[in-house]
């Protein structure tokens, strides 16, 4: 009786079929892990680009504040204000380099973003910008703030997945 019990507790030798099943399970698990990692990395990189663009917008806002609210009649500040003008024009030109990337990231909201981006460029560099008649304009700065905050709302909605 004891010999029957011992004989039944011994498992049969593994066959080719069990090795193949294990290999398929490991391969499927690796494929799932790769897919999950790929999706996660895409989301993280998308979020980083949107955050970087948002940071650039904050810099544009600071430069617009210096240009459009600065004291242009103070000769001691002229050099700083002219420098801010050049930085602003350069920063706005640099953000235009994001255009193709933003089209991919924003999808359906890109046309709304693009219209606001064009308005931002037009308002920030329009009027008496970079002329000898440049003067402070709180109205222009207010309009620029409004445009930037709308763009940031689009970026925030995209980051959150709405």
Structure in words:
- With 162 residues, this protein is an all-alpha fold.
- The protein has a single domain (45-160), classed as Four Helix Bundle (Hemerythrin (Met), subunit A) (Up-down Bundle).
- Helix content is 78%, strand content 0%.
- It has six helices and no strands.
- Helix 4 runs antiparallel to helix 5.
- The longest helix has 54 residues, at 16-69.
- The chain crosses the membrane at residues 20-40.
- Keywords: Membrane, Transmembrane, Transmembrane helix.
Structural class: mainly alpha
Question: What is the CATH architecture annotation?
Answer: Up-down Bundle
Rg (CA only): 30 Å
User: What share of residues are in beta strands?
Assistant: under 5%
Strand tally = 0
Query: How many domains make up the 3D coordinates?
Result: 1
Low-pLDDT residue intervals, each spanning 5 or more residues: none
Oligomer classification: single chain
Number of helices: 6
First CA to last CA: what distance? 70 Å
CATH class: Mainly Alpha
For the biggest sheet, the summary is:
none
Name the overall outline.
Answer: elongated
Average the pLDDT over all residues and give the rounded result: 84
Measured as a percent range, the helix fraction is over 70%
Compressed to H and E, one letter per element, the order equals HHHHHH
Look up the CATH topology.
Four Helix Bundle (Hemerythrin (Met), subunit A)
Keywords: Membrane, Transmembrane, Transmembrane helix
């Amino acid at each position: 009786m004891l010999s029957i019990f011992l004989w039944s507790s011994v498992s049969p030798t593994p066959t080719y079929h069990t090795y193949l099943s294990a290999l398929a399970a490991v391969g499927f698990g690796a494929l799932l892990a790769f897919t999950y990692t790929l999706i996660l990395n895409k989301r993280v990189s998308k979020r980083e680009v949107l955050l970087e663009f948002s940071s650039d917008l904050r810099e544009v806002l600071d430069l617009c504040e210096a240009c459009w609210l600065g004291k242009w009649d103070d000769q001691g500040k002229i050099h700083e204000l002219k420098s801010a003008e050049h930085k602003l024009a350069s920063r706005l030109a640099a953000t235009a380099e994001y255009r193709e990337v933003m089209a991919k990231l924003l999808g359906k909201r890109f046309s709304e973003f693009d219209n606001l981006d064009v308005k931002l460029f037009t308002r920030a560099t329009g009027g008496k910008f970079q002329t000898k008649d440049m003067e402070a304009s709180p109205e222009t700065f207010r309009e620029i703030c409004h445009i930037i905050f709308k763009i940031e709302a689009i970026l925030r909605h995209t980051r959150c997945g709405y």
